[in-house]
Amino acid sequence: MKKVEKADAEKYFKLRTIMIFSFILIALLVSFGVVTFAEFFSQFTFMGAPLHYYMGSQGAIVVFIVLLFLNAIISDRLDAKFGVDNATNERIVGGQSMDQ
Question: Which residue has the higher pLDDT, 78 or 89?
Fold first, then answer.
């Protein structure tokens, strides 16, 4: 594995931390925010159901799954940008595992 410069490591850690807290904030807003303001969201409908009911029964789970995929995609791109992805590691060690 390639040694990462301290400045790059700090920048990578900062971006990952911001990303994780952003996803947690979105998940909390979707799960608890809609319930907290259910009376307000009851005036909107989605797929024939009141929005607060849909989000409580199905929408929050859909949002969580979308967040998981976004996290994986963005993490892979960040890893590639900072050179800590699997392709870079395999290229550095010549395709051989470091465990052998």
Answer: 78
